[in-house]
Amino acid sequence: MKTDLQLKHDVEAELEWEPAVAASNIGVEVKDGVVTLAGHLASLREKIAAEQAAQRVGGVRALVVELDVRLPGDDMRTDADIAHIVREVLTDQFNK
């Protein structure tokens, strides 16, 4: 049976090997064979590839995924910003 440290190194190596994953954006923690992946990725495809890579490693008892997908240019908008955009769209629609 692998130690948590061995398992962590194996998962990190598998993530590095996977070409669809930017492993430097993913943190790996292991406790009692349960692997947690955390970080921010650029696409859903990359997130799925990271999950599959971790699951390929022998000795992983369970996988906790705390990966967020942040699309390029995906800015956070405030409620005021959204309200302003809605007003503009509605005004344009009613002024036609």
Description:
The protein is an alpha+beta fold and 96 residues long. It is built from three helices and three strands, in the order H-E-E-H-E-H. It has helices at residues 4-17, 44-56, 79-94; strands at residues 26-31, 34-41, 62-69. Strands 1-2-3 form a three-stranded mixed beta sheet. The radius of gyration is 20 Å and the shape is elongated. The N and C termini lie far apart (70 Å). This is BON domain-containing protein. Pfam families: BON. Residues 3-71 form the BON domain.
Order of helices and strands: HEEHEH
Low-confidence stretches are none
Give the strand tally: 3
Strand proportion, as a percent range, falls in 15-25%
What is the radius of gyration computed over CA atoms, rounded to a whole number of angstroms? 20 Å
Helical fraction? 40-55%
Could you please say which CATH topology applies here?
Answer: Histidine-containing Protein, Chain: A
Mean pLDDT: 91
Report the principal-axis shape.
elongated
By secondary-structure content and strand pairing, the structural class works out as alpha+beta
Q: How many DSSP helices?
A: 3
Report the CATH C-level class.
Alpha Beta
End-to-end separation in angstroms reads: 70 Å
Overall number of domains: 1
Strand order of the largest sheet: 1-2-3
Proper CATH architecture: 2-Layer Sandwich
Largest sheet, if any?
Answer: 3 strands, mixed
